[in-house]
Amino acid sequence: MAGKDLEKPSPVVLFRDLREKARQLGLRDQDVSGLPALAEIQCGVKNYFLQAAKRSFKYLLFLACTLAIVWLLDWPVHNERIIRMWFHFRGLPSEDIELERCLLRTPDILSDALRPPLDCAFCRNVTSVHKVENISPEDFEERYAYSGQPVIVTDATRNWSALDAFSFEFFQQVYSQDSLELKNVENNCQFFPYKTTFRNLREVMQMEPRRARMEDSSEPWYIGWSNCDSSAGNVLRQHYQRPYFLPRVSESSKTDWIFMGSPGYGAHMHVSTHTRTHTHTHRAR
Question: Using CA of residue 115, residue 121, residue 122, residue 126, what is the dihedral sign?
């Protein structure tokens, strides 16, 4: 008897056979779909999944409330213990707890959804990006500084030693492992992994030289970060000067922005969240 029970066809097979018999009797799918019995079955399936979703939501809500109470009371489990368990779950070393600024990160899609509406009227009629060179600060201020017209100053980095000095190896030396410069950047500065799997600047600086130089069809990459470490900033500023075309009355941020990666890759179209508009940006080739 047990063998016969195991050989019973599945409900899918039974329904397929029943449907085939109905077709042989001249019934169409439209005729079968209108049967009250089938409507009851479909309603029962919908109710089953609806009830399952409600139960799951209740369990998650109960779990969230419980964790919130435990976190606020710091009892019966200490918050540090919870954080260490969370780091273990994420596969992160526990010694990185002091370097992590956020326990949970807001997904980019949620940040974009909660962003307040922006007025894009200033760039509505923009159809091209201008390329200029040898432009005076007065002309730049009049034509581009506050017009919303995108422009590329092709000779903006003239007389900069950064074109020869900046490289992946150069930044590895500036932000060497366990250096104060690297720790300060990780704790206080912004890092943009874009479409890579890098979680922080430390992982970038641990990249294999072969991938950094895009050898042997290595996976492409593109990242960016802000430097808010004064020591690293002093090293960077030895290789660049204030762009010659900026208006003399304009303010410049003390924060350096560095973006580097594989040729042909860059940041996706996005709305910048930075509060300052005049920042020094470096690209390492």
Answer: positive
Q: Output the six-digit token pair for 139.
A: 């002309």
Q: Is residue 220 over pLDDT 70?
A: yes
- 180 and 227 in contact (C-beta within 8 Å)? no
Contacts of 239 (CB under 8 A, 6+ apart): 160, 161, 162, 165, 166
Give the mean pLDDT of 76-94. Answer: 81
Count CB neighbours of 185 within 10 A: 24
Q: What is the pLDDT of residues 58-67, one digit of tens each?
A: 999 999 999 8
Residues 78, 204: Cα–Cα separation, whole Å: 33
- Rounded Cα gap, residues 177 and 158, in angstroms: 32
Lowest-pLDDT range of 14-28, 32-46, 98-112: 98-112
Query: Which class for 183: exposed (0-12), middle (13-18), buried (19 or more C-beta within 10 A)?
Result: middle
| Domain range summary for the chain, segments of one domain joined by + | 16-96, 158-261
Give the pTM.
0.59
Of 219, 218, 222, the C-alpha closest to 168 is: 222
